[in-house]
């Protein structure tokens, strides 16, 4: 599950994936608010996107590290997945509500720059991130790869308002935020 499982390069994670064991992952497992503030939550009013927007608007945003790490993102409209799950008895238990199209950090960077009509040419090296933020946070959160798919939600007939990142970002940054 998003924010509760260790980074796993390109592996696809389901709601049955084991919980994380590292410091940041352990915190998220014990504190659901930690998972909610995960880097994949897309909102111009909170989450990681709020902190990234000023940099990208100034034209100095860039991919983090190699950019190959997966980002499973959640749009604010996904709250309707909870309503769907409550009304669908077969969806008891843990449920992934991430969008059905996870992207790499390089793809996310490119889409955000495109939505803002700005360049994103300056990558942020792993070493610089580690020096600025601490290596544990960088390794377990910013550069960890989580390719989470909402297989059970999709199988139940749930339709995401924003199945693709481009539509979600266009709505978020094009709405005056």
Describe the structure.
About 40% of the residues lie in helices and about 5% in strands. It has about 180 residues and is mainly alpha-helical. It has a single domain (about 10-175), classed as NAD(P)-binding Rossmann-like Domain (Rossmann fold). A two-stranded parallel sheet has the order 1-6. A two-stranded parallel ribbon has the order 2-4. Helix 5 (about 105-115) runs parallel beside helix 9. The radius of gyration is 16 Å and the shape is globular. The two termini are about 30 Å apart. The model is unreliable at about 20-35 (pLDDT under 50).
Strand order of the largest sheet: 1-6
Question: Considering DSSP H and I runs of 4 or more, what fraction of the residues is helical?
Answer: 40-55%
Radius of gyration (CA) equals 16 Å
Inertia-based shape: globular
Residue ranges: pLDDT <50 for 5 or more in a row? 20-37
CATH class membership:
Alpha Beta
CATH architecture: 3-Layer(aba) Sandwich
> Count of helical segments?
9
Decide which structural class fits the backbone. mainly alpha
Q: Give the biggest beta sheet.
A: 2 strands, parallel
What would the CATH topology be? Rossmann fold
- How many structurally independent domains? 1
Number of strand segments: 6
Mean pLDDT: 81
Query: What is the CATH homology-level superfamily?
Result: NAD(P)-binding Rossmann-like Domain
The share of residues in extended strands comes to 5-15%
Termini separation comes to 29 Å
Order of helices and strands: EHHEHEEHEHHHEHH
Q: How would you describe this structure in keywords?
A:
177 residues, mainly alpha, Rossmann fold, two-stranded parallel sheet, 9 helices, 6 strands, 42% helix
């Amino acid at each position: 599950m998003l924010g509760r499982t260790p980074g796993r390069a390109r592996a696809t994670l389901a709601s049955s994936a084991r919980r994380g064991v590292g410091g940041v992952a352990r915190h998220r497992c014990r504190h659901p608010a930690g998972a909610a503030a995960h880097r994949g939550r897309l909102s111009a009013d909170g989450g990681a996107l709020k902190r990234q927007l000023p940099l990208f608007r100034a034209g100095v945003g860039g991919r983090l590290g190699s950019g190959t790490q997966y980002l499973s993102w959640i749009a604010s409209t996904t709250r309707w997945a909870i309503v769907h799950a409550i009304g669908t008895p077969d969806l008891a238990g843990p449920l992934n509500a991430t969008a059905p199209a996870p992207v790499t950090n390089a793809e996310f960077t490119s889409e955000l720059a495109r939505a803002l009509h700005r360049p994103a040419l300056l990558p942020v090296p792993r070493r610089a991130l580690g020096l600025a933020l601490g290596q544990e946070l960088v390794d377990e959160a910013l550069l960890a790869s989580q390719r989470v798919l909402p297989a059970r939600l999709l199988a139940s007939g749930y339709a995401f308002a924003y199945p693709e990142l481009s539509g979600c970002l266009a709505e978020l940054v094009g709405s005056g935020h």
